[in-house]
Each structure stands twice: as C-alpha cells, then as structure tokens.
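Hi V.,

You were right to ask for the full record rather than a summary. Here it is.
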Amino acid sequence: MGERVNIVVVGGGTAGWMTAAALVKLLPRRCSVHLVESEAIGIVGVGEATLPHIRSFNERLGIAEAEFMSWTRATFKLGIEFQGWGAEGESYIHPFGTFGYGAGEIDFHQYWLRLRQAGVAVPDLEQFSMGATIARMNRFQLPASDPSSLSSTYGYAYQFDATLFAPYLRAIAERLGARRTEGRVVAVNRNAVSGDIESLTMESGETIAGDLFVDCSGFISLLIGKAFGEPFQDWSHWLPNDRAIAMPCRTETALSPYTGVIAMPAGWRWRIPLQHRTGNGYVYSSQYIGDDEAREALVASVEGEPIAEPRILRFRAGRRERSWVRNCVAVGLASGFLEPLESTSIYLIQQAITYLVELFPEREIVSSDRDEFNRLIDMEYDRIRDFLILHYHATRRSGTPFWDYVRTMPIPDSLAEKMELFRRRGRVVKYREGVFLDASWVAVYLGQGVIPEGHDLRADAPPIDSLARGMEKLHADIRQAAARMPSHREHLDAYCPMAKVA
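Predicted structure:
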C-alpha cells in the first residue's frame, strides 16, 4: 500500500455515495476513490428520515443547507411522534433536544418527577420541551445560537427524498475526483496467501484493483457476506419485524415538522412529509400478518392519493460479527440492519464513515485499527438495538399476537439493567459514545408509561412552592416563544423552496 490508498467502493445509493464523497473530501491526499455500481440493481431509497447528526456530516462536506434541502425536497424534522405505542389512543413525541433549559447539575426530569410524586399537578414532560411544543404547533425556525435562549434547546434533522440524495452526493464526489464505473461485479478475486481482496471482475470483463474495498452493496452484502462469509448476528427474536411495504402519496394535510410512527396490529406505520409528497410504509412481522393483508392495511390508512405502487422490502434485524475484515469495510446495509423506527440507518452509515476516516490506514492496515473500528460499530448497533427494543417491551398495548409477544418477550440484560435504574429513581445510564442521549431515553420511558418510583434526592433542594412556580413560568414561556414562530410551511417557502429536479 503506497502513499495513496486506492479505494474501491462497491455499490452506490446513499451508503456508497456518502462514503465516496466523504473520503475524497476529507482525505484528498491520502486516497483515490473508484465507485462501481449497477443502475439495473437499483437502491432501497426509502431512508427518508434522519437524525440531527447528518447536519455535521453535510457541513464537513461543505454542503449549503438551503440548497441541499431544495434539491432533495426536504422538510425539517424536530423529532418523532409515536401514536398508540404506550396504549391505544395515546401519543408522545421523542424530540431532538432537551427538556427545560437542559443545563444544570441534574436532569430537568428529576425536578418534574419530584413535583409529580409530591402530588403537584404538572403538565406532561413533553410540554417542557421546546422542540416537541413547536412540532405540535407545526411551526419552525432555526435554533438560536445564544445558549441562554429557550430557542437554543432543540435540534433538528431532515426528511428528504432518498432517491435524490444519492445523485446529489454523486455530483459532489465526482467534482472532487471520485471515479464511477457502471456495471455488475461478477467475481471477487482474493489473494491466495493473505486472503485480501485484490480486484473485482466486472460483467464487461474489466478488472478493477484496489488496496481497500468498501462494501456498500446493501442487503446483498457482496464482499463482507458472500466473499468473506462473515457471520451475521440475528436479532429477530427481539426485533421480529422482517418486512416493509412502502408507498408514497400526495400530501393533503399540514406539513408537519416531525416523522409519524403509528402502531399497527402487526407492527407500525411511518409517515414522512416531504415538500412534494408524503412517504408511507408499514413495517411488520411476516409471522403475524401476510404481505397482501399488510398491503391492504397500508393503502387503507394513507391520507392522500397514492403516486406509486406499493413495494415490498424484506430484511432481518442484526449485524455482522465484524464490519471490517482484512481489507474490506462494510458500510450501511451490508454491515447490518435495524428497522427505521428511530431513523438510524443513515446515522449508522455516517458513523462507519467517520470511524473509517479516523482509523484510516497510514501505510498498511493493522489489526488494532480494525479491532477498534469493529468495537465502535458493534457499540453503535448494540445500543440502538436496546433503544428500539425498549419501545416494544415498554408498550401497554395488548390484544394482538404481535404486541402480546413483544410486550412479554425476554430482553437483553443490558436493557433490563437500564430499565431497572430508571424505574427506581429516574436514572438514565450515561455514555460518552453512542447516539441517543438522556433526553431521548426519558422521552420514550415516560411516553410509554415507565414511571419512576423515586427521583434524584438532589432535586429536593429547592422549596417545592418556588419549584412549582418556576415550572409554571417555564411552561408559559415555551408556549409563547413557540407561538411567535412562523409555520413550518412558511419557513420552508422562505428558506428552501423546492427545486425542480430533472
């Protein structure tokens, strides 16, 4: 391996072009990037909802937000509304941001718990989230930079057309020097001694050699799965959904700045409003409902006129034992899959790219770098897995075989320990690394009825009367600040009107 590492990316789509664009932008003197993809294979193209972390990825690539949103017909996303997950007829929002002002020695929800446990009537915790309040009102403005402002306490992500995101990134990557070859890979050629991949043979007969190969081939997992045979950890006993039916429709209701996740008899349904249409899908378990019945349920539940035929996706929850094997790194669906309940698919792509850049080979690939990459990726998957399982296990829904199973199923010890800590005194396990911070866990715990028996004793310090008055004022301040904001649609029209895409 010389001064410049020759990287071959197998597969386009979101994972492939995010990888190519990031590597040529962030490591311009260290690598050359050659991406191979087949237009005949196509892309999954339904990963339309994201987490706030994508903003930092775009910024590192020098992407102007308003232009990006115009071209991908994006809307803003302040969080996720879960309908019917705690119990029938209930809903809560998992917001991006903090509760209260978010600053202080102990978490805001501990003061809220103290008042509630003392018998003081207080609004739901959600009403002390600026992000959730704005979302409920269908309003939006960019957060304030002043940390003393309530308008600095929320974050945001995007909802965009995934079929337009990859071409947008491709243009950036090719402008920066990435090469692309169209065609199918028909053979993966490995060194007989080392076991490393040396080259790919294309259907055209062309041979493409490289030093480092990045597998972005999706569920096919052409390199890490088929060529290397890396074992797959199957998590379907915890996350039994193995199908999704996707179907876009015309938008007929208010353009909400959040993703909708609606409980269904054998799974859940997503609703993702974009500027030009609404994305819909039913994620379900084939153990509990047939494909035809699921398709009919989705078609019956969407709000507007369908603009494409429903299409089915098949998957299995879990991850590879290792995502970096020899000179092959798997990114995206080739590495693993977790259902899109918390919009983590693009985040996992982004983190794999970030760790690859940070651990990029200096002169040769060394085992310590591979091991650290795999440790970090495993941690990301495992912690997201526990967070997703929490949504199912903490439900109070009953009456259908699917919900009865997930509510009563055995859960990982790592999650059981987290839940016990929260039930006792509202404590959230804190990590230096990982995607979902305290406020996210608190939103789901309380939103689904996991109510602590006690609270952090430090929350007893302020006099209860002054604490109650402070809460009342904060609640009023949040609602007044939110009411002054423009509607989500007004902000979009002024900031990033939809571009005409050829």
